[in-house]
Write a structure and sequence with these properties.
single chain; Rossmann fold; N-(1-d-carboxylethyl)-l-norvaline Dehydrogenase, domain 2; 12 strands; binds NADPH dihydro-nicotinamide-adenine-dinucleotide phosphate; binds ketopantoate; 2-dehydropantoate 2-reductase activity
């Protein structure tokens, strides 16, 4: 099985090394600087679970589509930030000769509806998504460190397609030490992740605090309650569902378990702003706003939070 990883960052190198550990034929499409580091020093997975290290001759790195031969890949894993999806989906379409017949694109990102840019060019039976709550960081350009594990990585479809052909990918990731399963209910799990990320990520970035700190005063708590309630109204108005029946049920788990478990964590949105790069707000609260418009739901707090992040980004 030939696998191409597009987006060779924390998640991309983390998944790529996991698949390499099971003797999969893995290639990375990386920016010039990252490709250079990988060609020189190989790739590594460190942190929780088993550590793996691969020499440059164990995998292939491309820094341009022009270097890739025709008919090369069965699977493409997209693990860039969602801000690159417009670019990646367009380039993959322009270079579709690198894909074999019956190829599969698997999008490994936060947010909801990340398959949509790809569905402009590819069929619903060709595009799948993952829900990842394993934490990965990239201490060096060629190294992924597994920092947090709570639940298995989940693979599935948002388009009601058959998912059985994803099983070999899930099995290899599991065999590498990070549990990975298929689910028929991916939308439920992605909305659960959306609830968590949309509530904590932008607010933590705006106020420059950890997840836990946000629960320590009544003002940020009131904002988070409102974000959660609005997202539940959107889910209820849409065809989607999530793991809890009501905003109140979710809030109980959120304040008693989810936040305490990640109390000292700074959100990826916070980290993006510190790095002065565009955040993934469009596929988080921005997606909530899009759906709210479609289903005529009031999401005023999400709108304000969204505008504040956009205002910060406009300075970059
Ligand atoms: N890290 C984590 O713990 C988790 C992350 N996620 C989600 O996974 C996704 C990836 O996150 P993460 O790995 O942390 O991000 P990183 O910033 O570590 O990696 C992103 C990678 O994408 C590359 N890239 C940037 N632009 C493009 C482009 N146009 N085409 C191809 N590649 C590009 C970057 O290049 P370069 O090498 O030059 O930087 C980098 O290698 C995000 O959606 C994130 O929200 C989900 C759960 C956990
Ligand atoms: C890393 C993780 C999983 C936080 O728990 C996350 O989703 C984020 O920071 O955006």
């Amino acid at each position: 099985m030939n696998i191409l990883i597009i987006g060779s960052g924390s998640v991309g190198i983390g998944l790529g090394t996991s698949l390499l550990s099971q003797n999969a034929n893995v290639s990375f499409l990386a920016s010039e600087k990252t490709a250079e580091a990988m060609r020189k020093n190989g790739v590594e997975r460190t942190g929780l679970f088993k550590h793996y290290s691969f020499k440059p001759e164990d995998f292939t790195v491309y820094d341009s589509y022009t270097q890739i031969k025709e008919n090369s890949f069965d699977f493409v894993l997209v693990s860039s930030k969602t801000t690159a999806n417009d670019d990646i989906s367009r380039k993959l379409d322009e270079n579709r000769h690198i894909l074999k017949d019956n190829f599969t694109i698997l999008i490994c990102q936060n947010g909801f509806g990340n398959d949509e840019p790809f569905l402009r060019f590819f069929k619903t039976s060709e595009v799948y998504c993952a829900r990842i709550i394993t934490g990965f960081t990239r201490p060096k350009r060629n190294v992924s460190e597994v920092t947090v594990y709570t639940e298995p990585i989940l693979l599935g479809t948002l388009q009601n397609e058959d998912i059985n052909h994803l099983q070999p990918i899930a099995d290899m990731i599991t065999a590498s030490g990070i549990n990975c399963e298929l689910t028929q209910d991916l939308d439920k799990y992605l909305w659960a992740k959306m609830l968590y990320n949309c509530t904590l990520n932008p607010l933590g970035a705006i106020l420059d605090v950890t997840y836990g700190k946000l629960t320590e005063n009544e003002y940020s708590k009131a904002l988070m309650d409102s974000i959660i309630e609005e997202i539940f109204s959107v889910i209820e108005a849409s065809p989607y569902t999530t793991l809890w029946d009501s905003a109140d049920d979710y809030k109980k788990v959120f304040y008693s378990k989810l936040v305490p478990d990640t109390y000292n964590h700074y959100s990826s949105t916070h980290q993006d702003i510190k790095r002065k790069i565009r955040t993934e707000i469009d596929t988080l609260n921005g997606k909530v706003i899009d759906l709210a418009e479609k289903y005529d739901v009031d999401v005023e707090t999400n709108r304000i939070i969204y505008k504040l992040i956009k205002a910060i980004e406009s300075e970059f």
